[in-house]
Amino acid sequence: MPDVSAETIVRVPPSRLPEAVAQVMAKGVEAGAAERFMAFLQCQGHATDLCWAVEAEGGRLGPVYLAIPNVGRTAMIFVTPPRAAADVPRLVRLIDEAHGRLDSARVALAQALLEPNESLLARAFVQAGYTRLAVLHYMERRLTRLRSFPEPQWQDEVTLLPYRPALDGPFKQALAASYVETLDCPALCGLRDLDDVLRDHKGAGIQDPTLWTLVLWDGQPAAVLLLNPLADGESVELSYLGVGAEHRRRGLGRRLMALAMHQLSERPFRRFTLAVDERNEPALNLYRSFGLASTDRRLAYIRPVADGKGS
Q1: At what angle do helices 33-43 and 17-24 cross, to 10 degrees?
Q2: CATH topology of domain 140-297
Q3: Is the Cβ–Cβ distance between 120 and 81 less than 8 Å?
Q4: C-beta separation of 82 from 88 below 8 A
Q5: Which of 38, 44, 50, 200 has the fewest beta carbons under 10 Å from its own?
Q6: pTM of the prediction?
Q7: Average of pLDDT values for 18-31?
């Protein structure tokens, strides 16, 4: 077994990024898939320069760690999956060392999404300091047969406002209130600045201000609904639905879902998607009642990035 502590971890140069990206993609992908994936990331404004690898014998690339940063200072982490338990120590060192080289000015929180059967990869992330955040259920509803959906009726205390930049403050207030005693990925609470959170939601897909709704209750921020069209032009994602703790059990969540369906029934989208923490039974039941069904599951792991400069 090689001495993993003696191996060199190097920054992957731009000329070798397609080779590195191909390593972390699923087995059996067709030729050119890595280049197309990189072109897609760059088209969406994502940097691809945060990539490190174990330098193997003869200058070959060993296991690869690729971080794809988002505008809200999160980064999605992709690594070469281990083939056997003997590969895990090498991968742990790579993940830990590459994570330590991330620049907190660009990335505040690193996250990885794993298939439920990737137990060796999960072991490597945990041993490298990542924490399991949640099991995420991915849910979907086809919209091709969605007829006109009636707009919900609201309580007299409620005012609805579409997004505009001047409302960033109230939107952040509503987000913060919705995190109190939340059942949806509660370990995330307090890990990120609200400015970053709002930027992250804006960068998830294509922001359409008319599909972002702020709910005021007696003039105070009470809930938010954030729907983002996706780049394929046919899908829309529920980026976030949250109700402040003091405004729960007033039917706001159900009315916001009805509002979402009303808005989507008037647009040419074909698919409605979302992801939710499997522990959030009230949300799961709400989404199911509007015709969404689970299509996939992923295990989410996170690790904050310490202050400092990467290299």
Answers
A1: 100
A2: Aminopeptidase (3.40.630)
A3: yes
A4: yes
A5: 44
A6: 0.90
A7: 70
